[in-house]
Amino acid sequence: MTSDIRRALVVRGGWDGHQPVTISDSFVPFLKDRGFTVETSEDLAVYEDAERLAAADLIVQCWTMGTITREQSENLAVAVRSGTGLAGWHGGIVDSFHDHGYHLLTGGKFVMHPPGFHDHTVRLLPERADHPVIEGLHDFTVHTEQYWVLTDPHIDVLATTTFAADELRDRPAVMPAVWTRTWGAGRVFVSTIGHKPDDFDVPEVRTLTERGLLWASR
Q1: What residue stretches are annotated with the ThuA-like domain (predicted)?
Q2: CB of 9 within 8 A of CB of 58?
Q3: Direct distance between the N- and C-terminal alpha carbons of the chain, in angstroms, rounded to an integer
Q4: d(Cα 194, Cα 141) in Å, to the nearest integer?
Q5: If we measure between CA atoms, which residue out of 193, 164, 160 comes closest to residue 176?
Q6: Residues 27-69: tens digit of each pLDDT
Q7: What are phi and psi of 187, to 5 degrees?
């Protein structure tokens, strides 16, 4: 017998400043409405259970500034390579761990953000306008942290932000802000937006994040 019910595993914790429980909880009803059973874990030891990871159709990670073991990192990568989806936002996915294998999996790593929150525009790439994560959406403005990231050339960038020239940099820098990638049979969705709960009150942020969760899922 087979089931149409999909399984989502939400792994959350680390630095409390990103409110991992509050923000990840805001997506649980959406996932349940889309037919997922949702399990949460606030312990990275869940990544030691290879069978549990393989059984998940989607892993939503919301964990900032933690320490992952080689076994945990390798198990996560194997699960995604075999078809389990991985998705997350902001520091919960790009500032999670200092682990090379993990960064290869997600396709990007947080480096810095300018002090505080400021208005900046998120520009959607016109050539990717038909991607299901951003289809029908338009450029929008957010008032939050703007992430400077280092990224893998194999990611599929869907949206960018621009850092203006300043006293250190003689020209503007266009930075990936939302991207997807494949890893073997699995899919990965990353958005750098989402430091605080009200970031998701911006309709485009909520929509593209929800769509990203669905896109990444098996």
Answers
A1: 7-216
A2: yes
A3: 18
A4: 13
A5: 160
A6: 999 999 999 999 999 999 999 999 999 999 999 999 999 999 9
A7: -120, 145
For the chain, the C-alpha Rg in angstroms (whole number) is 16
Burial 108-138 (b: 16+ CB within 10 A, else e): bbbeebeeeeeebebebeeebeebebbeebe
Burial of 27 per CB tally in 10 Å (0-12, 13-18, 19+)? buried
pLDDT, tens only, 90-118: 999 999 999 999 999 999 999 999 999 99
pTM of the model: 0.97
- How far apart are the C-alpha atoms of 69 and 22, rounded to whole Å? 26
pLDDT in the model for residue 25: 98
* Burial (Cβ within 10 Å: 0-12, 13-18, ≥19) of residue 165: exposed
Short-list 140, 134, 137, CA closest to 119:
140
Q: pLDDT-derived band of residue 3, with 50, 70 and 90 as boundaries?
A: low
Would you say 210 and 186 are in contact if contact means Cβ atoms under 8 Å apart? no
Q: Which structure tokens are listed for 143?
A: 């008032």
Give the C-alpha distances (Å, rounded to integers) separating 159 from 132, 195, 202.
13, 17, 15
At residue 148, the 3 state secondary structure works out as strand
Tell me the C-alpha distance between 163 and 174, whole Å.
6
pLDDT band at 4 (very low <50, low <70, confident <90, very high): confident
Question: 161 is written with which tokens?
Answer: 């932000």
